[in-house]
Amino acid sequence: MAIITQKQGNLEYLTAEGIGAKHCFTTRFGGVSTGYLGSMNIGANRGDRFENVAENYRILGESLDFDPLNTVLTRQTHSDIVRLVTKHHHMGFDHRHYPECDGLITNDPGTALVIFSADCTPILLWDPVTGAVGAAHAGWRGTAQNIAGKTVAAMCREFGCDPQNIHAAIGPNIGPCCFQTDEEVPQALMETYGPTVRPYIQKKSGKYYPDLKKINHLALQNAGLTHIDISKDCTMCQPGRFWSHRFHGATRGSQGAIIVR
What we know:
Blueprint: E1 3-8, E2 11-16, E3 23-26, H1 50-64, E4 71-72, E5 82-84, E6 103-106, E7 112-117, E8 121-126, E9 133-138, H2 140-144, H3 147-159, E10 167-170, H4 184-193, E11 201-204, E12 207-210, H5 212-222, E13 227-230, H6 245-248, E14 255-260
Parallel strand pairs: 4-7, 5-6, 10-13
Antiparallel strand pairs: 1-2, 2-3, 3-14, 6-9, 7-14, 8-9, 8-10, 11-12
């Protein structure tokens, strides 16, 4: 299965062939935000006008056929916290109003889960048997805390999902081509995954280059998943198409991933 680019006029987003629920990984294209936020910014903390952010959610809702007022967002802190939510947990389009978490799960029809990314790894989950869905934000800290596996575990605990039925999609993030780190990152990853993670961490000239897509793929496999789509895109290599914190710094918008029950 593959990650596919979808275009509707100026709007561009990515979808995974293996995910049967309505979903997308957003890009920078297709919104109404202006200036350095141009144009599909979905983060209310980036200096954008609220009207622009709300309109961007409306555009995505119209394209994917979900009600923006049924969205639930994350206040991400690079944690391993997973929340069980319904559409009644909607608190607007400013994620700062929401409780802290880096993972969301739901089995409530019509509820749309939203996580944000700008180099970190966005992960979407769908169980075709129970209909349950999940979304996780996995920076290197979240990856080291196994947020992907813990989101799967929460779906199994709350909804009776069988991991072998769950389909996952790993979206665009900063690739090992660009993600240069010091020793603390591989150490944290090794503490969680042990020697199985070594093939996914390159060392060059005293620096380390982890492949967070492959490490989260490993985490999902450890959780029992066998259906996993992986994007090949690096956000830092394509700063005109994706927001990249390492490339743009604070002068950027936010993209994200959305999945609808």
